[in-house]
Amino acid sequence: MLEHIEKDGVKIEILQYKTLRGLRDVCFAENLYHIEKAGMSLKQVKITLRNSAVTTESGALYFHKGNICAECKIGGVGGLAKKLIKNSLTEESAFTPTYSGTGEIFLEPSFGHFILKELDNDSIIVDKGMFYCCESGVSVEVSSQKNLSSGLFGGEGWFQTKLSGKGLCVLEIPVPMDEVLKYELNNERLQVDGNFVFLRSSSIKFTVERSAKKLVGNLTSGERSLHTYEGTGQVWMAPTQSVYKTLAQCNYSPTANRIGDSDES
Questions:
Q1: Residue of 175, 201, 206, 174 whose CA lies nearest to 191
Q2: Separation of alpha carbons 70 and 216, rounded Å
Q3: Higher confidence at residue 29 or residue 48?
Q4: Cys-Cys link to 4, which of 13, 133, 168, 229 (CB 3.0-4.6 A)?
Q5: Inside any domain, residue 210
């Protein structure tokens, strides 16, 4: 188990399967070997309910056991319209089921990276598609960019996902937790060259600014714009995220460039 939190009738655990030994196909075994050598591991979110409830991303359920009821509230025509709008703007599912009762819930296994985050009557803004599940006391909403610069040049579009309320939530983040930098700003400013900040307190103001006030200085500095975060609250960033994106575009094959491999006949 990587991490767990238990509170108010809900226990959420992030399980880790460090080694997978169930393969019976030799061809697949090579892929699994390289996956394990790269430090990747299969993970799964387990939720234990005791007369409580959680809401999950649509399609995340793997199985559940116990006296648990599933419900997907639409809220009439108006509620349906709001959910469809949220789906189109934030890439979060329009229909998020709520599971209530007493028992165990297992969500889909994944090689992704999950974190547990607790909200205490506050709110955070996260990148689109990061929401995975939360307690019923946490609401998932749409957050719009507050100014023209962040909407046009922020890299996330005009809308992100806002989580607010009181309770536990699970987020799927772009990198492992040990590669995340967490800053607590106290009426301070943080400027970043890139869009690898994936979480911030809603109290933090986000804008995109030129790296130099004058055009000449902007050109000679080699930088075009900086993502600027100001105020008091948390800012989480993944500085290694761009490296993984670059590697994903290389189409690297682990069987390439071996001794004896050659195009020559």
A1: 206
A2: 60
A3: 48
A4: 13
A5: yes
